[in-house]
Amino acid sequence: MRRTFLEMKAEVLKALGHPTRLAVVEMLGARGERCVCEIAEMVGGGDRTTLSKHLAILKAAGVVADRKDGLWVRYRLNCPCVGRFLTCIEQMVRERIGEERAALKSR
Description:
Elements: H1 5-15, H2 19-31, E1 34-35, H3 36-43, H4 48-60, E2 64-69, E3 72-77, H5 82-105
Antiparallel strand pairs: 1-3, 2-3
């Protein structure tokens, strides 16, 4: 089955749709290429098996790329523009939080 362009974009957005995966993307954007052990230390996200599954989802969507480095697999952000997108989302969320706080105060 041939995937449409919209389906491919949806795949990227779905890959970003989990807090652990968002944390990985933000961390790789800020700190650059890292091995799974470093990502696990910085992000958490459960055990390494679970983290590896999250990384596989991000890789399948094209958000991250990997390379072998001896015994290690190192991951990097393959889509740097996603950082700008996440910054935009963060701004929107902060505005919503402010609106909710203001609504609570006015009660």
